């Protein structure tokens, strides 16, 4: 019968004493065998248990590394993360150098030491240490559930002219800006009956430059007019256009427009959304994330949306919001690994493309606009306008009801003002507090018209 528990522990102490007093190898071997028969241990385990035990002193115990990043640094990161629209860690790491020079105006306690900590922290550490990790899986998930259910595709495929438009499938192989994907996003709410608004979304494949335009209905002439408005607002020439198979794109109006402006027009395969992966992602970040899935059908609502599309939104997204691009796919057996390039803003990609050559006037003006624009003020202006747009959706006689945390149940976008209220505190205690806004301060001209005027 083998020993176990307390009997084994008592026997182990006796056998250790006998083993230590044994002088010859044969005697030690006899003790090993006897202990193995009584305990059931393997001979090698018995050798380790009966041999001399190393006593670990308290001073030799493993010391844990202290906290590297202070609470003040994590609060600065969370404030920027909130003002920038909750980007994931890789994008947040890339946008911190752009936003930090302006953060001093809005947050107390941002010392040089805290600034160095904020710039030194890695994206992985942001996920581990920052409060953004908790909020991104908790608070944001709750806000997403408050939105209406996603209503897919309100467009119908056009079949008459498909042979006139070639198919673009697979990854894009472009090395210059100007080739774009385009799509319509319906603002129909829970019912697609009648006429309602759409957002025409256009994103550049090379740089990620994204612009949008709200239109009423999806008529062929209205889509072409909106595309012309977006084309004139680009800092580069439009060389190619890729759409889905909806009748709002596959028609003679758009084919003639592309031929007149020397634009290569292609389409995706039917029912293959992966062919338009770039624009499908922007449909969320640039449209649904801001306006939700409510119904907008009035001219006033579309005018308010276009005010954002023409001013604050493109400046914030294209000049201050980094994005990542897929660099390569590598398949090993059944596992597919995707490698992404470092996060860059669309403007930075344009500056890299023109490096070594004279900058076009429009790109030079955009770089100057970013140098003099405070992204926190920009996000705050966007945050003030979004509730005004939300009040204009069909059936909204009053402002949207507040959520349990006190915020308005409108788009998932929070400015620096909300983040500062959450982290209001005393600068002496190391916590952050917002600076008082200056009354009567003139509104910053967030329009890109001046930048494009000299193109």
Short description:
This protein is an alpha/beta fold. The protein has 19 helices and seven strands.
Task: Explain what this protein looks like in three dimensions.
The protein has 455 residues and is of the alpha/beta class. It has a domain at 5-51. The protein has 19 helices and 7 strands. The protein has helices at 5-21, 25-39, 43-50, 71-83, 89-103, 112-120, 123-129, 131-137, 139-146, 220-232, 252-260, 277-291, 299-310, 312-319, 346-353, 361-372, 375-390, 416-422, 449-453, and strands spanning 179-187, 197-204, 210-216, 240-243, 264-267, 326-332, 335-340. The strands form 2 sheets. Strands 3-2-1-4-5 form a 5-stranded mixed β-sheet, with helices on both faces. A two-stranded antiparallel ribbon has the order 6-7. It is elongated, with a radius of gyration of 31 Å.
Salient structural properties:
single chain; 455 residues; alpha/beta; two-stranded antiparallel sheet; 7 strands; elongated
Query: Which word captures the global form?
Result: elongated
Q: What is the straight-line distance between the termini?
A: 93 Å
Main sheet makeup: 5 strands, mixed
**Number of separate helices:** 19
Rounded to an integer in angstroms, the radius of gyration calculated over CA atoms is: 31 Å
- List the helices and strands in order: HHHHHHHHHEEEHEHEHHHEEHHHHH
Tell me the strand order in the biggest sheet: 3-2-1-4-5
Q: Compute the average pLDDT.
A: 76
Which stretches of 5+ consecutive residues score pLDDT under 50? 134-153, 396-445
Report the strand count. 7
Strand fraction band? 5-15%
Structural class assignment:
alpha/beta
Helix fraction? Answer: 40-55%
């Amino acid at each position: 019968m083998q020993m176990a528990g307390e009997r084994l522990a008592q026997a182990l102490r006796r056998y250790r004493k006998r083993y230590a007093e044994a002088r010859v190898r044969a005697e030690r071997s006899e003790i090993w065998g006897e202990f193995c028969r009584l305990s059931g241990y393997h001979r090698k385990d018995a050798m380790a248990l009966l041999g001399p035990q190393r006593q670990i002193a308290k001073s030799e115990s493993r010391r844990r590394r202290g906290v590297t990043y202070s609470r003040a640094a994590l609060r600065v990161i969370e404030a920027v993360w909130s003002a920038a629209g909750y980007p994931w860690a890789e994008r947040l790491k890339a946008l911190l150098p752009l936003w930090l020079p302006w953060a001093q105006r809005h947050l107390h306690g941002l010392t040089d030491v805290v600034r160095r900590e904020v710039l030194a922290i890695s994206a992985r550490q942001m996920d581990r240490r920052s409060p953004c990790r908790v909020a991104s899986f908790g608070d944001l998930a709750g806000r997403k559930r408050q939105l209406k259910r996603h209503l897919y595709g309100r467009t119908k495929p056009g079949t008459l002219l498909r042979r006139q438009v070639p198919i673009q499938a697979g990854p894009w192989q472009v090395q210059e800006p100007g080739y774009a994907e385009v799509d319509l996003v319906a603002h129909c709410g829970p019912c697609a009956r009648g006429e309602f608004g759409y957002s025409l979304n256009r994103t550049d494949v090379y740089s990620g430059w994204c612009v949008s335009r709200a239109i009423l209905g999806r008529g062929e002439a209205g889509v072409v007019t909106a595309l012309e408005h977006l084309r004139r607002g680009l800092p580069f020439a439009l060389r190619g256009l890729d759409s889905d198979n909806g009748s709002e794109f596959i028609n003679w109006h758009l084919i003639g427009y592309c031929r007149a402006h020397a634009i290569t027009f292609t389409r995706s395969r039917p029912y293959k959304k992966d062919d338009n992966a770039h624009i499908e992602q922007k449909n969320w970040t640039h449209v649904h994330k801001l306006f939700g899935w409510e119904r907008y059908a009035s001219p006033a609502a579309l005018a308010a949306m276009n005010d954002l599309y023409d001013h604050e939104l493109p400046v914030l997204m294209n000049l201050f919001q980094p994005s990542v691009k897929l660099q390569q796919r590598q398949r090993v057996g059944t596992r597919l690994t995707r490698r992404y390039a470092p996060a860059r803003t669309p403007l930075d990609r344009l500056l890299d493309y023109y490096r070594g050559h004279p900058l076009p006037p429009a790109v030079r003006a955009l770089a100057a606009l970013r140098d003099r624009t405070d992204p926190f003020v920009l996000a705050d202006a966007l945050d003030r306008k979004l509730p005004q747009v939300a009040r204009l959706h069909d059936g909204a006689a009053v402002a949207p009801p507040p959520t349990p945390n006190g915020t308005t149940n409108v788009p998932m976008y929070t400015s620096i003002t909300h983040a500062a209220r959450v982290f209001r505190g005393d600068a002496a205690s190391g916590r952050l507090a917002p600076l008082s806004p200056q009354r009567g301060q003139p509104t910053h001209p967030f329009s890109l018209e001046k930048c494009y005027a000299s193109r």
